[in-house]
Amino acid sequence: MYAQVPRDADADDTGGRVPSAVLPQRPFSVADSAAASGSIGGMDPGAGRALARALGLGRTGGRDGESLLMADDDDGDDDDNDNDKGTAGSGGRTGPHALNFVEAGEVEDSSDPRDGPSRSPTANLLLNGTYAALWFFFSTALSLYNKNLLGKDLFNFNFPLMIVSIHSLCQFALSSALMSMFPASFKPKTQATVSSYLTRVVPTAICTALDISMSNASLHYISLSFYTMIKSSTPVWVLIFAFLFGLERPRWSLISVILVICSGVIFTVAGEIRFSLWGFLLILGASVMSGLRWSLTQILLQSTQLGMDNPVATLKNLTPVGAAMLGLMSLGIEFFGPTGLTESSFFSSWSTGIQTFGVVGAGAILAFCS
After folding, report:
1. In degrees, to the nearest 5, what angle opens at C-alpha 227 toward C-alphas 221 and 233?
2. What are the residues whose beta carbons fall under 8 Å from the beta carbon of 316, sequence distance 6 or more?
3. pLDDT per residue over 245-256, tens digit each?
4. Closest listed residue to residue 146, CA positions, set 218, 252, 247
5. How many helices (H) does the chain have, and how many strands (E)?
6. Helix (H), strand (E) at residue 18
7. Which of 80, 159, 334, 366 is surrounded by the fewest CB atoms within 10 Å?
8. For bias kind Acidic residues, which ranges apply (predicted)?
9. 174, 368 contact by CB (below 8 A)
10. Strand, helix or coil at 4?
């Protein structure tokens, strides 16, 4: 296809047609025509354009003042820069096979249909505020649920590995259902290769599983308020791993934030009345795993080749690894023995077993929403 240009401004022998690769990739003008052909007084393209502008020939010329739109060019560089690289718009390639032609008035649409219509700043603010409020609600509800389920003085269901394994399976099923029902919104365009999955996705999934498991296990020994205070040290570990992975550059402002959070954690530990060393070590280890987890997650989301450009796709890829790993660990640690699942009153009969799985399944919904 060709872009039509005025015959008198065209020195090519293609019958008034000039390859779009040598035309300016923006609204076509007489000045651009002169620059493309270099036909004004034998001048080079840059000088030809400058003279045409000085003569007042304008930017949207043509014989009838028609504006011819070329393919979109984000950087807006002049064609003389493109000519230095080779054929414009062809990645620096030259030769007849490097020429691409577009119809006059044709503009390539590179937008992603999943982005939806553009929203105003007020609409974006309200939408993000709603998401944040829902996250706070479900996250708080999940913390209260876990404390009541795992607390030593409450429900005392001290099987954190099995709980997280079941939650991971439920999240995998829910995310898969959403991707099947709404593929335009959640199904990624690409899929991770086997090597990328093993080297990037699996480590992130392991850190996620360990973070959640140790967090839940600590609730059996410490109070929810102490749990929250120690878990608030997670940003410290996020920044430390971000420094190590090159995601952030060390700055004094960030270092001061780390020091303030660390001093707050120290005061919290010193003022805790019912201090449990085992519970403290579990929640501290969970905070470290959480920092590593979120740094690795950022690396995953920044890569467009892994097919995890939305939270639903990320959950679908991460949860199977955590469910399998924690399920095997639970089978070896929590199932047998005098305090194991097989001897527990929670599964003493079919009715109590179904009730127990129902309670655990309700937490899976909260975990998925948070």
Report:
1. 135
2. 172, 175, 176, 179
3. 888 888 888 888
4. 218
5. 14, 2
6. strand 17-18
7. 80
8. 71-82
9. yes
10. strand
pLDDT for position 36: 44
Residue given tokens 């996620």 in the structure block = 208
Query: Which comes out higher in pLDDT, residue 151 or 45?
Result: 151
116 dihedral zone (left: phi>0; alpha: psi -120 to 50; beta): left
Distance CA 311, CA 301 (A): 9
Annotate 35-63 with b (16+ C-beta within 10 A) or e (fewer): bbbbbbeebebebbbbbbbeeebeeebbe
Structure tokens given for 165: 């394994």
Strand, coil or helix: 354: helix
Both tokens of residue 128? 């993000």
Six token digits for residue 201 = 């996705």
In this structure, the chain runs to a length of 370
CB 161 within 8 A of CB 335: no
The partner residues of 198 in beta bridges, in order of sequence, read none
Taking the C-alpha atoms of residue 30 and residue 49, their distance in angstroms, rounded to an integer, is: 8
